[in-house]
Amino acid sequence: MPGLSGPLRRALHWLLVSLALAASALFTPIAQAQLAPISLNADVESEISSRGQLYLAQDQTPPASAKDLPAWLAKHKQIERVSLFGGSYWFFATVQNDTQQTRWVIDPTGTLMERVEVRVYTDGKPVQSFITGYNGSSDYMMHYGGNVELPPGAVAQVLLRIESRYFARYPSIYVSSEANYRKTVVAENVLTLSALGAMLVLALYNLFVYLGVRDKALLYYALYLLVATASWAMTLHVLSDWMGWRVLSWHYVMFFLSSVFNSLFFLEFLRLKEHAPRLATFARGTIMVALALTPVCFISVAYAHLLATAVISVSLTTALVAGMIRLGQGFLPARYFLAAFFALLLPAILILPANFGLVPSMMRNIELFTLLGATTDAVLLAFALADKIRLLGREKDAYMAQLNDALTQASTDSLTGIGNRHAFDRTLANMTHVPGDPTASQRVMLVMIDLDGLKRINDERGHAHGDSLLREFAQGLSVVKSDGMGVFRLGGDEFAVLGERHQEELVRNTLVVVERKLHEAGYPDAGISYGIAFGSEINSGSQLLMHADARMYLHKTAKRTQPA
Fold first, then answer.
1. Which of 246, 360, 499, 504 has the most CB atoms at less than 10 Å from its CB?
2. What's the whole-model pTM score?
3. Confidence check: pLDDT of 27 > 60
């Protein structure tokens, strides 16, 4: 070590020696542990994939007996892990049954594997073997596990041949007692079918709601759930074991489409085009990329897996950013939207790095864990849609209230507070044309009224007194409204009452009372002239108006010619 002083050189020398000894002490037991048999526990499954040896499968034929295994394995190249782009591999491990349990299950899991051949060599026993995998048959629905027998105290050598065109993540291999494995299978299958059923029900329900309200967000959400249900049903072997449908290329077609419909959903739900146009453009770009990459599923399944993982990662990230932006803008349904994607975030954090081959699977059935996260996501997105519909309902109610207020104002005389000419025309049309009741118009009664003396009061006492007279008259005339009649000011000193024929006497008496009260209120020169017409006399609303108006003028003329 040129350039270093004597003490410094010696210190560095001892440091390197210490590190070498520590490394030797650290790694030597591990190497030995890998060669030692793996002790089995009847109560807890044993993960053996990390404590065995993996080889490239250069030989198609396994040895016939255990004594031939060492020499046979020596001919194969040992590797650390499988390639996610698929291939054929041998896995070897030695296990020891330190229990009284004899019935065991060897379970290759953690990823889709097209074909797995399992062989178990036990001294003094025939070789046990079974074939499982996506294209094989299994003893357990939706699982690759197969039964073997290991006598108490026996040491067994386990050899697996694993073949697949791709691996979603690194395979895991477990050995479990048959009793425990059955419980695991039942629990996982119940959770899987329940989650898929919940997603399917939500999809069909929202599709039904869409047919009524025609909100595109509901349509895209329903389609997203349908393709997500189909993709997870394929991935978790529901369709292959239940229906015998095994077409590997379609698995990732569904995952690409789920990314497409998910993006369409949050584009519509969050209204990104109006409120975050740049992000909306980016989201539409991811949709185009997903659609463009979909044919890869039929060209190379291995690349389709990695590309679908990348597209889904980008889509989820875009959705989270969009939700945060819209919540910051005050769009309250984004609360449930963000909660939904955070529910999916934890499984995504665990499964996506494993899908890229960055880390091994962190749990036994990470796909089921991700499905449960996706189901929670679906439920919370349903809450988000319900919240949006609730807010839209509130907005609609507020709009209808404003519309009703505007309609009321447009139909009300501002001075007297009774109906105006517009309200009169609408009411008359409704009363003379009742669907399903041809006799309705014959029951109509129209009273046309002139308030005499108004012009004189305006000229002599001012318009304020004239307005006061109009209000006083309208108030007195409005008492007939309690009997279901309509009261209107048509303009100036002209008023009208709409009712039915049997109410004629009530109207006449009311007009007499109102005229007397006007005199008592300080309007001695005010008077009332009116004319009454009935629907039974005419054929249309306009004729009814002409008859009543003519009779009102006859009444006015008769009053003028009457002696004082």
1. 499
2. 0.67
3. no
